[in-house]
Amino acid sequence: MRKNLVLVMLAVICAACTSQPAQAVTFDPSVRYSRIVIDNCLYHFQANTTKAGFAKYDAEGNLLAASESSRGFDYVPGLVAKAVLECVDLYKDSTWAKPWFYSIQAYAESYWDDTHDGKSLDDLNACKMYFGLADLVSKAPFADPIVASHCATAKANALAGLSAHNSSYAISSATSNAFSGDETYTGGWWHKSSYANQLWLDGQYMGPALLAMMVADGRYISGSAAGDWAIIMKQFRMCWNRLWDADKKLLYHAFSATPTSTQTTNWADHTGDYESNSHYGVSSEFWGRAAGWYFFALVDILEQMDKAGKSDADYEELKAQLEAVADGLLARQDASGCWCQLLQYTNGEIPDGCSTANYLESSASAIFVSTFLKGIRLGYLEKSKYEAAAIKGYKGLITQFLQTSVGDGNAYALIHCCRSAGLSDTDRKGDAKYYLAEEGKKDTKQANDYTEGKVLGAFILAATEYERAYPPKAPAAIDPACNCLRIELQNQ
Asked: Quick one: DSSP state of residue 69?
């Protein structure tokens, strides 16, 4: 009876939070922020500007509310799904985490038999959720042989998609020779079928990192583990060779092997040629979230190499890349603990030719924090060197981007996420004005007034890693951020 009364009080008082003015949250080490964010945002968030919230279930798997999503099988809800499953795995013995599992399982079960043509690395990335789901349904408390079988089929379909992409949407020998005079870029995976001969940093997390999970799971597109590791390594060598700036210790967003084509002259440097211009074919700015996905991909692939028992020169090469990127990001961390939309400028700095200031961006900051924490946990990054920055970054995520009552229908929201910043032939030219939403297509606008799925997924990954390393002890308390009663009921 007492517990029911407390829960009623909690519901009444927290409901009142939505009527209060938006307030920043003060970091509290006793709070399990993963739970606060998932409970408040899982059922109502957006993918760019499209509703993408999951269906809501209770702890027994009974449907409470249908999904609001019209997004379908997609990179953004797929990212959130993967992140939530990692958090469920951490808290699988807690009753309050079980509803999350059923929400993600329902989403995954809607698409397990979909086929994939490999036209978009973004969409293929959503298939990563089937690995986490397969692990959870293989044992109590979520054991389900039917869902496990569906996960196996989903993995096979995703493998076929990766194979199709490798065959049909990769840089040809002729294109590579025309670009660099040799085979250096032959086999480079296009980011999407509509972006011919373009390699993006974000694509390395979407495609090769997924293939690494397949290889560690005993699934190959080339016929052998060695052949697939060679494909993966080639993607990273091409990107590193073309996009890493050793002086600034930052990665450019993308490059095109056909920089004089009408599709890429808008954003790719096409002055001179490959021999005379080391920046030939490369975009002009260092975009935070793209660098984040590359950073995260390095840790994830090293993890899969460990699972597969691959500890060789390739492993050491990626580990060296990881440390180099980590050092570059360490030097760019803001005093708040977070990072900016454009990494080579400080917070509030106005780049040359712009009238808009650079700003702290939530999704990139969350990706960096989660990667630092995971890299430290797995031993790829030196704890004594990077731990302080990781902790500072996590606290910064809370104080800078987590707010109450922003008016999106949730009691809490994650704000300041760049919606999207791809590159294209006319209105997305990849200069500072574009990334700061000053010129061209306005999809780079700061999403100040609602939770966007890319920061939601990245934040859940960061919170899960932080809570693994520093488990919160959360008694009942008054939360000064929203003046609402907060109760953590563990194992109920």
From this structure: -
